[in-house]
Design a protein that fits this description.
By secondary structure, the chain is an alpha+beta fold. The chain has helices at about 5-15, 20-30, 40-45, 80-90, 90-100, 115-120, 145-155, 165-175, 190-200, 240-255, 270-280, and strands at about 5, 30-35, 35-40, 50-55, 60-65, 105-110, 110-115, 125, 135-140, 180, 185-190, 210, 220-225, 230-235, 260-265. The chain has three domains: about 5-65, Arc Repressor Mutant, subunit A, CATH 1.10.10; about 80-150, no CATH class; about 165-280, Endonuclease, Chain A (3-Layer(aba) Sandwich). The chain has a four-stranded mixed beta sheet, with helices on both faces. A three-stranded antiparallel beta sheet has the order 1-5-4. A two-stranded antiparallel sheet has the order 2-3. Keywords: Kinase, Transferase.
């Protein structure tokens, strides 16, 4: 965080008003507004934005003194689900379902609610003044979001590997071949994952295997349960070092993802451990 300054200091350095600078940053998609606080978005992080902690005033955002504000790549006009769908040749319902699967949107009785991670991706919570229903608008940069584009490609039946430049995924797959076939037809990499997959299937819990986390880094979660937005990480003693475990757990924590951890020593006690853990996220097991 060396040589990074607050938004107020940056405004002073650039001889502009703080409010005007925040508005510019919001238009560019670097920050978002949640009630009375500013949130650093994924785009803001790309350009060097970070959170800092003040002992008296709490958390605030800092920037490089030479911050580049790329306003040209954004029109500043938010997109509705219908307009976003037009970019991908999908209807609004399918777009909302994909955004929900990514954990950026959640269905509520009176509409759609933007989640905390959705705010970071550029979502704006809105309320229809006539009906009182809630809905979401999205910063137009989301149309270029790598994770959304990957989800659209996967939903449309295209191979996700063609759209990633990260070689670590293919290297990982070559090193740990998915050769164990589960009851629901998944192919997994270890007997421990096979037992988890079969347990979820037999308990009627919809799940995805090897799901990419909805973040910029190329990180696969062992299992993803869309009904509770829960990720399951299996710690196989042969495939994870202590440092790898710490790094992965830190990423889950930093993005506030719901996480259930299963140690290899507990793999034969799933009936005793998983139901209670799943219940915490509103998922019932038979």
């Amino acid at each position: 965080m060396a040589d990074k300054i607050s938004t107020t200091a940056l405004a002073k350095l650039r001889k502009t008003e703080v409010k005007k600078l925040f508005d510019t940053l919001k238009t560019a998609g670097y920050v978002n507004r949640d009630n009375n606080s500013w949130i650093l978005t994924d785009i803001g992080r790309k350009f060097g934005g970070e959170y800092a902690q003040h002992p008296k005033y709490g958390q605030f955002i800092v920037w490089p003194e030479s911050l580049l504000i790329d306003s040209d790549s954004s029109s500043g006009k938010p997109l509705s689900a219908t307009q976003l769908g037009q970019r991908f040749s999908l209807n609004a319902k399918k777009i909302n379902q994909l955004l929900q699967e990514l954990g950026w949107l959640q269905k509520i009785p009176d509409g759609w609610q933007v989640t905390n991670n959705g705010l970071k991706a550029g979502g704006y919570q809105k309320i229809d003044k006539q009906t009182g229903n809630q809905y979401a608008l999205w910063h137009d940069s989301i149309a270029h979001n790598k994770r959304l584009k990957q989800s659209v490609n996967e939903f449309s039946g295209q191979q996700a590997e063609k759209h990633t430049t990260d070689k670590s995924l293919s290297n990982f797959r070559q090193k740990f071949e998915a050769k164990y076939r589960t009851l629901d037809g998944h192919y997994v990499r270890s007997k421990g994952e096979l037992k988890i997959d079969n347990w979820l299937y037999m308990n009627g819990i919809v799940h995805a295997y090897d799901r990419q986390l909805p973040i910029e880094e190329h990180i696969l979660s062992d299992f993803y349960l869309p009904s509770g937005k829960v990720y399951i990480q299996y710690w196989d003693n042969d495939n994870h070092t202590d440092s790898e475990k710490r790094e992965l757990k830190a990423i889950y924590q930093a993005h506030q993802f719901n996480l259930i951890e299963i140690d290899f020593r507990d793999i034969d006690k799933l009936d005793d451990t998983l139901p209670a853990q799943l219940k915490e996220f509103g998922i019932a097991a038979y």
